[in-house]
Specification:
Helices cover about 85% and strands about 0% of the residues. It contains eight helices and no strands. It is globular, with a radius of gyration of 19 Å.
């Protein structure tokens, strides 16, 4: 029975990793569609996000089966419960990405992002892809040390979000209300996407150590 349990637990871990990789593909496509007014890329991003609904259901089915049929205890139970929480974070990343792609689709064939802000949004998109890449790597390795590095990457996204809001506030009176709303929402969507990758890191630390990130950080060797 325990052999079957660990095989199913590995399957769940692989499903989570797949979700994160699909999140990365979706945010890359959504950003490309947004910056290039490319309807095909925007539609592709939305398709990937819809695939995430199926992946979420598969993960939840695997997790519930583990809880109901395998009677996990102690560290095993922690891994299954944390996996369920990770599913929610990874699915939310997809939902936020779909919002980004939808803005590009609604404004097509016009550019949703004005030329003056395109560089900022491009950097936000690149940061989101990088954070999704890091999240996928952490899910694959389960290494809490790698997971702890997310805060620095999130700081980059926070700075870019602030830069974008500053640019929006500096818009002159000729800017359309629709553009202002779009850019404000886009900034928020990218920021929240990054926040969920940070949660992936935090939950990985708990899954690996049994401690919340703050407790673990206080006890780990300082020279590492």
């Amino acid at each position: 029975m325990r052999t079957r349990f660990h095989e199913d637990l590995e399957q769940l871990a692989n499903q989570l990793h797949t979700m994160c990789l699909r999140d990365r593909a979706a945010i890359a496509a959504a950003t490309g569609g947004l910056l290039n007014a490319d309807l095909e890329q925007s539609e592709r991003a939305i398709e990937i996000c819809q695939e995430l609904d199926t992946l979420r259901d598969q993960c939840e089915h695997t997790a519930v089966a583990l809880l109901a049929l395998q009677s996990p205890v102690a560290g095993e139970l922690r891994k299954v419960v944390t996996a369920i929480q990770l599913v929610a974070n990874l699915h939310r990343m997809g939902a936020l990405t779909e919002h980004i792609a939808d803005i590009a689709r609604r404004r097509h064939p016009e550019h949703a992002v004005p030329e003056s802000m395109r560089s900022i949004v491009a950097r936000m998109g690149a940061a989101a892809v990088a954070m999704a890449t890091s999240a996928a790597a952490v899910l694959a390795s389960g290494d809490p040390e790698d997971a702890a590095r997310f805060d620095a990457e999130d700081d980059t996204m926070d700075r870019l979000h602030h830069e974008l809001l500053t640019a929006v506030l500096a818009c002159d009176g000729h800017s359309s209300k629709a553009m202002v709303v779009d850019m404000t929402l886009l900034g928020r969507y990218y920021e929240r996407f990054a926040d969920h990758t940070v949660e992936v890191g935090r939950r990985t630390i708990f899954m690996a150590t049994g401690c919340n990130p703050e407790e673990w950080a206080a006890t780990r060797p300082r020279d590492r």
